[in-house]
Amino acid sequence: MRLLLAATGAFLLSGSAIAQDATSDESVITSVSSEDIRKIIESAGYTLGDPIEGDVAWGASDADDVKFTVQGTVCDGDQRCSGVHVIIVINDVGTAEFANAINNEYAAIKATAYEDGDLVLSRYLILDAGQTAANIQHSIEVALLVTKAIGADFDEATGTLRRPSVSSIDWGDDSGIYANDGACDDARFHGNGDDFSYKRQHVLADATDCRASYADGSIKLELDFGNNSGVYANDDTCDDNRFTGSGRSVLTSDSHVKRDSVDCIAAYRAGTISR
Q1: pLDDT over 90, % of the chain
Q2: How many Å apart are CA 197 and CA 211, to the nearest integer?
Q3: Cα(45)–Cα(62) distance, rounded to whole angstroms?
Q4: Among 46, 157, 187, 254, which has the minimal tally of Cβ within 10 Å of its Cβ?
Q5: Cβ neighbours of residue 77 under 8 Å, at least 6 residues apart?
Q6: Alpha-carbon torsion 166, 269, 259, 229, what sign?
Q7: 167 vs 95: CA distance, rounded Å
Q8: What does the H/E/C string look like for the chain?
Q9: What is the mean predicted confidence (pLDDT) over 198-225?
């Protein structure tokens, strides 16, 4: 996939190294100007491009030359804006099917397909209640990381996200009460798995049936709990903010998306969280 600047305008890379590091600046801001956006991009260590003509926005790129735009939105007459959009455009892959697959798989970003073939990936941050420069920089980082993950998963032959291999999925065991009946009961493979308690309880508990159905292409992975690498994993509360419910913690960042599998699987089986 070719990762290009968002359609808000073109820019020339300045080529200059970014010197100042202001990621420790925790002062709360409720609006940004074009100059604020420039400083936030620079202090995060990205290569700054030119301002986008007619917008409160700047182009930039990261160390891998992935180009993005940071744009102020809901701006007043003084060109101070109470929202920030991080925008990345991928050319020639913009189908509705691909956008829907991304939106189902990646909670931290929104994908929109356009008729000209562009796929726009965006992440929005509201400043009204106050955010720090570090929060905005974190949103930029998340948008770039998700974009690269999408690029790694993209299957050019089908124009969709690559299907995980049978060997890469943790199938669990056959401990479920409906295991070995020829039908996959694991809620991870059902779009409406939230609605059926027995499918929740069969997460990682119907290995033989689900492996066979997945291998023959009759089901797909709808819900990926990921791994258990989060710093707050194994604390008996689900920190993955793709879920809601009483079993979810108060953590609101994206830091534990797909990184708290043990806690989230337990809560999902118990019915205290839903997608």
Answers
A1: 65
A2: 21
A3: 8
A4: 157
A5: none
A6: negative
A7: 29
A8: CEEECCCCCCCCCCCCCCCCCCCCCCCEECCECHHHHHHHHHHCCCEEEEECCCCCEEEEECCCCCEEEEEEEEECCCCCEEEEEEEEEEECCCCHHHHHHHHHHCCCCEEEECCCCCEEEEEEEECCCCEEHHHHHHHHHHHHHHHHHHHHHEECCCCEECCCCHHHCCCCCCCCCCCCCCCCCCHHHCCCHHHCHHHHHCCCCCHHHHHHHHHCCCCCCCCCCECCCCCCCCCCCECCCCCECCCECCCCCCCCCCECHHHHHHHHHHCCCEC
A9: 94
Q: What is the third-level CATH fold of 2-160?
A: Yope Regulator; Chain: A, (3.30.1460)
What is the Cα–Cα distance from 8 to 88, expressed in whole angstroms? 10
Cβ atoms < 10 Å from Cβ of 63: 9
Distance of alpha carbon 57 from the chain centroid: 22
Angle at which helices 133-153 and 34-43 pack, to 10 degrees? 70
Q: Which of 84, 12, 28, 27 is nearest to 55 (CA)?
A: 84
Q: Give dist(CA 217, CA 133) in Å, integer.
A: 46
- pLDDT greater than 70 at residue 3: no
Which of 242, 250, 252, 251 has its CA nearest to residue 273? 242
Exposed, middle or buried, 70 (CB in 10 Å: 0-12/13-18/19+)?
buried
- What residue type is 137 in one-letter code? Q
Look at residue 33 and tell me whether its pLDDT is greater than 90. yes
Q: Please state, in angstroms and rounded to a whole number, the distance separating the CA atoms of residues 181 and 161.
A: 30
The single-letter code of the amino acid at 194 is D
Backbone angles phi, psi at 147, to 5 degrees: -60, -45
Instruction: Please give the pLDDT value at position 25.
Output: 60
Average pLDDT, the chain: 87
